[in-house]
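Progress against Task 2.4 (sequence-to-structure conversion) is shown through the following example record, which the project officer requested during the mid-term review.
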Amino acid sequence: MWLHVTHLFQNIGRNCTLQINNWVKTKMGFARYHFMFHSRSLVLTPCSRIEEKNVSPDKIDLDIWKTIMKENATETPDPLSSEDSGDSFLAATRELVQMWQLAGKTVPENITDEQLRTVQELATKSAKKKFLKYLAIKEGKKKARKEKQKLKQETANILQKEVKNEERVELKNTFLLQIWQRTFDVMYSWRTAQSMVFGQSLVFDMSYENYMNRREMENTVSQLLECEGCNRRSLDPFHLHFCNLDLHGGYYKELLKRYGDAWDNLLITATDKSYIDIFPKDKLVYLTADSPFVLNTFQHDKVYIIGSLVDKSLQTGLSHANAKRLKLATARLPLDEYLKWNCGAKNLTLNQMINILLTVKETGSWQEALKYVPTRKHDGLLSVPPEQKYWSRMRKQRNNFEAEKRARWQKST
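Structure tokens generated for the chain above:
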């Protein structure tokens, strides 16, 4: 009996479904429409696409809604250009700096777009604050230097007015000083040009850019400028080589920024090649404080290499490891042999190194050359240098040999 009742209800439901489908087809006007009792529906607000499809905005089938959303997804707005996005990032970074300035942080008053890009590239917040503090200190020193120059100029003007008021005092002629300075510049340039043809080569290894932060890199470039000036003013200058210089790196950009148009007229050799591709390996000697070998005698036929590295974190053994990797000879300056060393690392700045090498090259005396080592690091020269000990020992042995020889000759006679 229950089976008959179930079949009866199924037939009634089937007939109702057919009647409702026929009614919907006639009223809605769809060619194909499959009606389901529990179909999903979505209520949307009226829009142009709904009107185009002639569908009521009150109820939309889920399949139609999916097609509408896919069509809307394909029409994405045009992205911003790279220049506009870069300007917006710079503006946001500038606002961040201004906010820190109002909060009392140590930041510079005036900051350039290039410095803002550098701040933007830094990864952490502490690194950004440290760099901004460095720029603020640098700006303060520059202001103090300008004020000092201004005060000095005002004092000179006052003295000049007082001198003009006196009738018996005559002014000195100073036009010869300008001629004298130009003559010296020509002489220095001529010596440096001769050294590029006939002089001894000195290499600065510029491959340590990745081991330094921006402040250390700028300090290194400042020391390189001093090295170039000291070498140019010396009596017998070196032929300077800046090897492993990346033409797209920070070293090159900072050098161009410091020298400007004078970079192309410098009497140095700057190249991205390695020194092992320019000079024979048996002529190269890498100067590093970690070497076990001592440079007792300066050799004029060797090419000495100095690592262009200012490392305040003291990454010991970096240049020595680089020299060992390239299988080059290494040497260190005879600091312990000539100086009463107090404490600390035996790392010297680049300008101190080139002054020591220039002096020992001209005079051949380590006592004179090591005067460029800062006195805070040692207590002066040793009482008896090793060379004098060696020659006194050799002289004593020779005298003993001659005395024994004279004694044997007297016995034989």
